[in-house]
Amino acid sequence: MARIKIDLDRRVGELDRRVFGGFIEHLGRCIYGGVFDEGSPLSDERGYRLDVLEAAKGLRTPILRWPGGNFVSGYHWTDGIGPREERPRKTELAWLTEESNRFGTDEFIEYCRLLGTEPYICVNMGTGTMDEAQAWVEYCNGTGDTYWADLRRKNGHAEPHNVRYWGLGNEMYGEWQIGALSAEDYVKKAREFAKVMKWTDPTIELVGCGLSGLADWDRVVIEGLAPFVDYHSIHIYTGSDDYWSNVLAPHQADRALRAMHAMIERARYEQRIDHPIHVAYDEWNVWFRERGQTSGLEERYNLSDALAVATYINVFARNCETVKIANLAQMVNVIAPIFTNEEGLFLQTIYHPLRLCAEHMQEVVLDAHVDCETHDLSTEASSWPHRVSDMGPFDLLDVSATCDATGSALTLVVVNRDPDRATQTTIQLADSSFEGDAAAYEVTGKDPGSINDFGHPTVGVDERSVQTTGSSLEHSFPACSVTVLRARLAT
Ligand code: AHR
Q1: Is 21 helix (H, G, I), strand (E, B) or coil?
Q2: Ligand 1 pocket test: which of 25, 64, 92 has the largest number of ligand atoms within 8 Å of its C-beta?
Q3: Which of 98, 247, 374, 467 is deepest in the core (most CB within 10 A)?
């Protein structure tokens, strides 16, 4: 028997909806064959795949990062504007392919408008110059009588694109990155990029390039860029064939966010910086099966991955004061919840918790008290590349609780990591009571390895109603499941 206790007065902070952000990169079939598929009967006349757009809308993505990823470090954005037939086809060195440039800045912005999401552009700090980054901001946001603003108008966009979020390079620390740098060299370069970009449009918000939140790189970069940036990024992917390592590894994100919080506060204090700096967790997901420069990264997700993904979201909620933006990598085909072929698409297991969380989680995060059995991960089967075996023991139930501003609606996201047994649980409210039945949206399946495929949506969502009695309810969370529980409260 487990117990979850909720006190509506114990508020942790506000859940920023931008943690439900997404990411699309010129990689494999993410853009071409995913988002954009010219000539396909499933696409509109501009080339946007309408079935993908529809599925993506279900995820309520508030912010979308583009064009990379590693791709951006060799990308010259000017190749991707103007008449499509005249755009150069180029060798692409991040993923060893060719880039047609038929999808570029204007197509990306148009897609963001269709999806109802804010564009977030990461600039090229590998082969790209400061001048190019400056011109990109001016092309997108310029209102003056200048060459770049005029070029945008000439390309059919009289009004500025108003791109608010800009990233200062991607994973500039990694030897796999085109133009990788030491932390010190990155800081020097990024400061200059930041200056010209902000001078061009002082309303933009900048994201400094971080690593894992726990690396020396992060400390040097946050200290060096604190006066210039609004966010520091983290990328952590986890995953393992070992069930326990796979479902518990997302707790690494919890540690990373706590470490970042401390580093950022220290830098702000020491440098007397008044503006807030938050974490943009701008790449995250389960990813360990399909790796390598030419693999296309078409990871197939199983039920245990859906549990891991829901745990990440819970971690973001519990650290809502630190992380304000998070971008699932990626949106379609490439380590993604949506998977296409020429005839259609299917929704991977991870789509369901993502969709349910984005739809049902509320704006205020509460500090849920959880009392349940635990699991100790004393040995860990390679949860690439991050280690959590020194953390824990971990509650078998991972829980986030959110309510609306008035305290009349409550949502719990409960991940039951017990692979074998359902967990009978009492949910107790401290000073309020339930009103009517609650709704439980359940994602579970035959076993942790269950996957979905075209025409075989094995793992989906079951909806059931849950009786409440005054200030408590009882519910049995199925083995290996994610449950989003939504209840109304008497105010
Ligand atoms: O999302 C796939 C890749 O993972 C991105 O291109 C890169 O930024 C990260 O290493």
Answers
A1: strand
A2: 25
A3: 247
